[in-house]
Write a structure and sequence with these properties.
Length: 147
């Protein structure tokens, strides 16, 4: 791996740990040329996952899209730094637990909602209102009963 400081590729790993949710490997590296240390994160490539939307078109899974949709749910809601990352990791783990290479956006939304319900109620309600077809209060009550 190239050093971000001197751009040479003469580095060594001197500390390795799994992250809190076990979805990534945290590594501390040192450049043998300039002696500066830096951190890297290693995670599994989920490029094999295909997401099927409402148009039945399959697209590659994108962590950044999931993260962005979760970030939107937390807008103006106080939360700890790293909360959105932790929820994204949890949702990804649950999607992988399905052991399917094709997953629908509806299924991912259901996993997100069941996960958010335990993290933050306000974010849960915001995600529910923006990612499901809720036109009336009765329909909202039905959706809330699912989770």
């Amino acid at each position: 791996m190239k050093c971000p400081f001197c751009r040479r590729d003469n580095t060594e790993v001197f500390n390795t740990r799994t992250t809190k949710f076990g979805s990534q490997i945290w590594r501390r590296r040192r450049c043998l040329d300039c002696q500066k240390a830096f951190t890297t994160y290693e995670s599994a490539n989920l490029g094999f996952l295909r997401v099927t939307g409402s148009t039945r078109r399959k697209t590659p899974y994108s962590r950044s899209q999931l993260y962005a949709s979760l970030s939107t749910a937390f807008l103006d809601i106080p939360h700890k730094p790293g909360t959105v990352d932790a929820i994204t990791d949890t949702v990804e783990a649950k999607v992988l637990d399905l052991q399917q290479s094709d997953v629908s956006t509806t299924k991912i939304a259901a996993i997100v909602l069941s996960t958010l319900k335990h993290f933050n109620t306000a974010a849960f309600i915001r995600y529910l209102s923006t990612h499901t077809e809720v036109a009336s209060s009765a329909q909202l009550k039905r959706e809330l009963k699912k989770y």
